[in-house]
Amino acid sequence: MGRRRYPLQPLTKVFLAALGLTAILWVLRGLSVLAFLPGLVIWLLILVCFGLGIVSSLQRIR
After folding, report:
1. Within a 10 A sphere around the Cβ of 22, how many other Cβ atoms?
2. Which parts of the chain register pLDDT below 70?
3. Do residues 50 and 18 touch, judged by C-beta distance below 8 A?
4. Sign (positive/negative) of CA torsion 5, 55, 46, 21?
5. Of 62, 55, 48, whose CA–CA distance to 11 is shortest?
6. What sign results for the dihedral spanned by CA atoms 9, 13, 14, 19?
7. According to the model, what pLDDT value does residue 4 have?
8. How far is residue 1's CA from residue 15's CA, in Å, rounded to a whole number?
């Protein structure tokens, strides 16, 4: 694979980290490892990921 022409923006890195954290927590909660975690926390993380994704996309357009 070739190299990227430009490095990832800091906000994009935060978005990817939040997305990864959300996915890991969701899977662990589904496996009952983190069954005590309220569903509201997962939904808030999903909403944060959507917001960060939109802001990251808009930042790239600018």
Report:
1. 19
2. 1-4
3. no
4. positive
5. 55
6. positive
7. 61
8. 23
Q: What would you report as the CA-atom Rg of the chain, rounded to the nearest whole angstrom?
A: 15
Decide: 49 and 24 in contact? Cβ < 8 Å. Answer: no
How many residues are there in the chain? Answer: 62
Backbone angles phi, psi at 29, to 5 degrees: -70, -40
Task: Tell me what pLDDT residue 60 has.
Answer: 75
Rounded CA separation 36/43 (Å): 15
Please tell me the predicted confidence (pLDDT) of residue 2.
61
How far is residue 4 CA from its own chain's centroid? 21
Q: What is d(CA 11, CA 53) in angstroms, rounded to the nearest whole number?
A: 9
pLDDT at 59: 83
